[in-house]
## 1
Amino acid sequence: MMFRNRSDFCTFFALLALVAFSLSCSSCKKNTDQLSLQNLAPEDLSPRIEWALVSDPYVACRKEARYDSDTIASFRKGEIHEIKGNCTVFVDEGTKELWYALGEGWIPSRSVRVFSNKLQAENAKKMLK
């Protein structure tokens, strides 16, 4: 690009600087979300403890890891529970299903999403619809 005189060059450079400055300012915004670790217990971030976020609207919690077992509690979508254990159960011929123990009882894995710490589960809970 050729400029006829020094004034044209200065005008072009000033406009270019103004555009660059306005683009850099418009892409910045203050993040008002604060990460609060003060309310978390050490086990909430422990890598050895997994957390279950209930993803179904209603889940029956069973006394044993099978569908014909007694219902001892129920969970609602968005609840977060610590996983105490798991087991694989044969449902039909050759079909296996994973169940999680959530302290109160057992629920099938298809009803929850599993996270490696409670903070991740709480963030995912905000995204549930």
Note: The CA atoms of residues 78 and 126 lie 9 Å apart.
## 2
Amino acid sequence: MYTETEMDRVVRHHADGITTITLNRPASANAIDLATARDLRALVRDISADTQVVALLGADARFWGLYGDLDFRRSD
């Protein structure tokens, strides 16, 4: 399954349990301003329940990657 949600500053792709969120502000080195933070928050809140890995990247290779384990969302 492939889905894409696009906001002005943030792009999300989801496939095979992996969600990639890309900050799309290369002119500002993908800095997170208030509007970007709001967009990012909205996308994170709406991450698919089948997501196993989240990768946070920056457009134009001007950002470091961050990977997170989402096990905390599962109930035992």
Note: The longest helix spans residues 34-45.
